Amino acid sequence: MEISFWAFVVSILLLFLASGSFSIDNFHQPFPIVEPDPGHTKLRLSREGLEAISRITTPIAAVAVIGPYRSGKSFLLNQLLSLSCYEGFGVGHMRDTKTKGIWVWGTPLELDIDGVRTSVFYLDTEGFESVGKSNVYDDRIFALATVMSSVLIYNLPETIREADISRLSFAVELAEEFYGRVKGQDVAFEPAKLLWLIQRDFLQGKSVQEMVDEALRHVPNIDGNKNIDQVNQIRDSLAVMGDNSTAFSLPQPHLMRTKLCDLKDGDLDPMYVKKREELKELVASVIRPKIVQGKPLNGKEFVSFLEQILEALNKGEIPSTGSLVEVFNKGILERCLKLYSERMGRLGLPMPDQSLQEVHERSREEAMKAFDEQHFGRHHAKRSAEQLDEEIKEVHKNVIMMNEYHSSRLCEALYTKCEDKMDQLQVLRLPSMAKFNAGFLQCNQSFERECIGPSKASYKQRMMKMMGKSRSLFIKEYNQRLFNWLVAFSLVMVVVGRFIIKFILIEMAAWILFIFLETYTRMFWSAESLYYNPVWHFIVATWETLVYSPILDLDRWAIPIGCIAAIWILYWRCYGRRKHGSRWLLPLYASHKGGSNRPRSD
Fold first, then answer.
1. Residues 97, 102, 104, 109: what is their CA dihedral angle, to the nearest 10 degrees?
2. How do 109-113 and 30-36 pair as beta strands?
3. Element containing residue 210 per DSSP (H, E)
4. Which of 71, 297, 505, 541 has the most CB atoms around its CB within 10 Å?
5. Largest CA-CA distance found in the chain, in angstroms, rounded
6. What span, in angstroms and rounded, lies between the C-alpha atoms of 49 and 107?
7. Cβ atoms of residues 260 and 207 within 8 Å
8. Per residue in 1-25, is it b (16+ CB within 10 Å) or e — as a string?
9. Which of 177, 116, 112 is nearest to 142 (CA)?
């Protein structure tokens, strides 16, 4: 009866403690924060450890040690905390696992990180590959430690095995699923700094960084073996984190490993003591506060975050297999987006909308196909694929805007060129409808041929308006200008025929033309009917034939031809008569009286 009574008292006390009404007075000890359920498949929270964390009001950082069971994780943490085995984390010398779940040292180290006072907690995790546990349980421990920690120490004995790489890759994949899929919220945060810690009996030979690089190096796959491809993808997922990881080597502290807890620093290998202090400095240099959604977490926020993560994990909201490595997918996404951008960047803008759309669809299909072939995971892959599609749309929008800009510039330049051309044709020295029509057609054809892209339609309408106005204005002024030119031409020919060439027929023809234009047309034809008269049409056709043809553009060559003609006439007037005599004179004005030439009386 007495034994039963005391058992009852102990059970009541345990229930009292579990209820949370009992407050912890001594935090200088380890506390469990996550424990396994009785079936050792799922995890559950421990109120003791959560109370030790939630009391912290400053930003929190966590250092977690993961690795195989019986690999010295608890001893390593005690060494980092400068604690003995009897006051720090429990160290087991038997073949079973001492640490169950995840434990935290109740008293954090206070560090000044980038000017911010930060409380650093050290976490001890249950080793994997021990007897009586499922692989899913190990994966959950790994994933949870990865998500919680700011620095993740991967403690490995002697070397890196293929199983170590696969297991860590899976833990990273699983943890990455938490980053954006906790209760439908975006809980993105910086991944933990990965520290490869290899403990070995000797430090000669390859450095640990060389060992890590070699372990993550691609395995040749000439035959295209799918299994080798899968292993190489796992290596890629870890290699992408290269900028976020480092490696460190630690020698064994002493040959008598079962007696380590009873040995002082003076009894340990001096090289080990030296490297241990270097490891402390390394951890302190890389650790940063835990940041979620851009905000550092204090104790209560850290506990709330941990509760959400664990609840999602146990309910299966986050898959335990085939999950996505977000960092790796991010690199793939960037490469696929770059592939699309490069394809679109090679385009010679501007180009027609239909052609641009066809190139966009081909480039998008190529980028999405590359992503489908390389991505990790299923659920996150869908989200990343949607993100890639959205970013492709943004790039496509920018390309469309650039195409519109270049098209507008090109069409504006062609429009301005044609506008200037039309203005020049309006002020021809010798008005020519044929030349105007030729310039009009040339502008139209060059615009149709060279103006491409989305701005062509609007600028084409502007071109039609501008050229229509120019044509109407030219036709309106053409007849009047031609009439004035013919009047001036008749007067000039009168002077030329009478005083220069002295050919009376030319002079008479010029007078007839002048009288016809200035008298007859005004007496018998109106200004409007003149331009529709067949005689005027004949005059216009003759004028157009003389002024412009594909062979001769008199408007361009009028001045040179006039200069040449003036020089020839001047030469003939000065030297031709002396050299050739009167036979160069026109008969009408030649006089032979007395055998000598006599000047005209008039």
1. 100
2. unpaired
3. helix 208-215
4. 297
5. 181
6. 11
7. no
8. eeeeeeeeeeeeeeeeeeeeeeeee
9. 177
DSSP conformation letters of 322-351: S---HHHHHHHHHHHHHHHHHHHHTS-SS-
Within 132-231, strands assigned E span 151-157, 193-200
Q: Which residues of the chain have pLDDT under 70?
A: 1-25, 40, 92-98, 129-136, 167-191, 200-205, 227, 230-231, 234, 236-244, 255-259, 293, 312-331, 374-381, 520-533, 536, 550, 552-559, 562, 566, 569-602
**8 A C-beta contact, residue 130 and residue 94:** no
Interior angle at CA 362, CA 357 and CA 365, nearest 5? 120
Q: Which 8-state DSSP code applies to residue 24?
A: P
**Model pLDDT, residue 59:** 94
- Residue 141 pLDDT: 80
How many helices (H) and strands (E) the chain has is answered by 20, 11
CB-based contacts of 483: which residues, under 8 Å, 6+ apart?
517, 530
Burial degree of 529 (CB within 10 A; 0-12, 13-18, 19+): exposed
- Burial class of residue 364, CB neighbours in 10 A (0-12, 13-18, 19+): buried
Q: How far apart are CA 287 and CA 44, in angstroms?
A: 27
Q: 193-200 and 151-157 as β-strands: parallel, antiparallel, unpaired?
A: parallel
CA distance 232 to 216: 8
Q: Rounded to the nearest 10 degrees, what angle do helices 534-547 and 433-450 cross at?
A: 60
Q: Provide DSSP, 234-250.
A: HHHHHHGGGGGEEEEEE
Alpha carbons 570 and 589: distance in angstroms, whole number: 19
Alpha-carbon distance of 32 to 144, in angstroms, equals 14
Query: 40 phi and psi, to 5 degrees?
Result: 55, 40
- pTM, two decimals, is 0.50
* Structure token digits, residue 573: 């007037």
Residues 583, 586, 592: CA angle, nearest 5 degrees? 60
| Confidence (pLDDT) at 357 | 93
* 67, 127 contact by CB (below 8 A): yes
Q: Tokens at residue 163, please?
A: 């199983």
CB atoms within 10 A of CB 542: 10
Alpha carbon distances (Å) from 327 to 169, 176, 209, 572: 11, 8, 21, 95
The residues, any chain, with a CB within 8 Å of residue 246's CB and separated by 6 or more, are: 193, 194, 195, 196, 209, 282, 286
Structural domains in the chain, sorted by start: 24-222+229-322 (3.40.50.300), 326-411 (no CATH)
**CA 245 – CA 195 distance, rounded (Å):** 6
Q: Which of 164, 156, 149, 310 is nearest to 244 (CA)?
A: 149
Q: What is the DSSP code (8-state) at residue 520?
A: I
Contact 56, 108 (CB under 8 A): yes
Structure tokens at 474: 């030219």
How many residues can be counted in the chain? 602
Residue 407: predicted pLDDT: 93
